[in-house]
What we know:
- By secondary structure, the chain is α/β, with parallel strands linked by helices.
- It has helices at residues 15-28, 64-91, 107-117, 132-138, 141-148; strands at 7-10, 32-39, 46-50, 57-61, 95-102, 122-127, 153-157.
- It has a single domain (7-157), classed as Rossmann fold (3-Layer(aba) Sandwich).
- 34% of the residues are buried.
Amino acid sequence: MADTSPILIAYDGSPPARAAVGEAARLFAPGEAIVLTVWEPGLAEMMMVPDATGMGSTMLPFDPSVTREVERASEEHAQSVAAEGAALAREAGLDARALAVEDLTDPPDAIVSAAEEHGARAIVIGSRGLGGLKSKLLGSTSKVVLHRAACPVVVVRQPDEHGARQDEPVSED
């Protein structure tokens, strides 16, 4: 009997995420999919202002009403991005629904937690294909998800401008 559990597609609107939606449909259609966008609360709680010497900076809280408005806008944007990804997934043949979740620790943990919470049979995630120093400096969400998830993870490389997949392997350092 085929597994009817949903897959989880991590989606941020980027070209690698769009490629991940297409690959997820190729591999798992017509199955159920959850298209997940992670948003980070608390970004508006602090702002940088020069310190008394003018040399450094000090963190000061924003006006609470501004903070609430920025938080609301961030969440609405994440919901919109998730809805866009779910629409792409439905167009590609998946039975998809959108889900926006708060990043309470870091994006990979939010993705893995959502997959566990929804009983996902697999996670599909795009990769920017950074290698070497760039990967070490910027980090790799797909790499961390790959190592933390209990379910299978499909990492989809972004196609180049000619439609071919980049052939440089994702750094595992």
